[in-house]
Amino acid sequence: MSEVASTADRPAIPDRLSIDPRSPFHDTAVFEHDIGIRFNDIERFDVAEYCISEGWVKVPAGKAKDRKGNPMMLKLKGRVEAFYR
């Protein structure tokens, strides 16, 4: 029963979420819990940002970096599901 109580304490999963704290789509309350992303029915562990309604995820493009030292991102389109583990 403790698991049922803990799911009620979790915030709703947002439509768009980013791991970058500088992003307006970053929500620290959601990251206090373990969240998972399923992209085209495959669970991905490298997602940096997602949008469920628009159907895309952003993942790092290998070891490539931009001029500020941040990883270059690829935008992949498909079916996106976010869930609490």
Gist of the model:
14% of the residues lie in helices and 42% in strands. The strands form two sheets. Strands 1-4-5-6 form a four-stranded antiparallel sheet, with no helix packed on it. Strands 3-2-7 form a three-stranded antiparallel sheet, with no helix packed on it. The chain is mainly β.
Descriptive notes:
- There is one protein chain.
- The chain is mainly beta.
- The chain has 2 helices and 7 strands, in the order αβαββββββ.
- The protein has one domain (2-84).
- The strands form 2 sheets. A 4-stranded antiparallel beta sheet has the order 1-4-5-6, with no helix packed on it. The chain has a 3-stranded antiparallel beta sheet with strand order 3-2-7, with no helix packed on it.
- The longest helix is centred in the N-terminal third of the chain and has 8 residues, at 2-9.
- The protein is globular.
Question: What strand order characterises the main sheet?
Answer: 1-4-5-6
Strand content: 35-45%
Q: How many individual domains? A: 1
Number of strands: 7
Question: Spans with pLDDT under 50 lasting ≥5 residues?
Answer: none
Average of the residue pLDDT scores: 90
What is the CA–CA distance across the termini?
Answer: 16 Å
Helix content: 10-25%
Radius of gyration: 14 Å
By DSSP (H or I, 4+ residues per run), the number of helices equals 2
Structural class: mainly beta
**Major β-sheet annotation:** 4 strands, antiparallel
Order of helices and strands: HEHEEEEEE
Query: How would you describe the shape?
Result: globular
